[in-house]
Design brief:
Layout: E1 6-15, E2 19-29, E3 35-46, E4 50-61, H1 62-72
Antiparallel strand pairs: 1-2, 2-3, 3-4
Length: 78
């Protein structure tokens, strides 16, 4: 089973004093196939200080996600 992520947002920008920041938000199906996982990755790098990395993940069941979409969405004519 392949677990390819959907990249929702990717951004790189230069920071002051030669630093670099990379941000990425992705959505993927969890290994169990019953949940989706939203991951947010932030990395900051400074030549003198090295780098730091923070990853936050949020998981929700597919059932809850689909119910929420049905409650929040609008019906469209096919």
């Amino acid at each position: 089973m392949t677990n390819d992520a959907l990249i929702l947002r990717r951004r790189m920008r230069a920071l002051s004093r030669g630093g670099l920041q990379c941000r990425e938000v992705e959505l993927r199906l969890a290994e169990d196939g019953h949940h989706v996982v939203l991951s947010r990755y932030v990395e900051r790098y400074h030549h003198e200080q090295g780098g730091e990395c923070v990853i936050q993940q949020h998981q929700v069941s597919m059932t809850h996600l689909i119910r929420w979409m049905m409650e929040q969405g609008e019906r469209v004519k096919a």
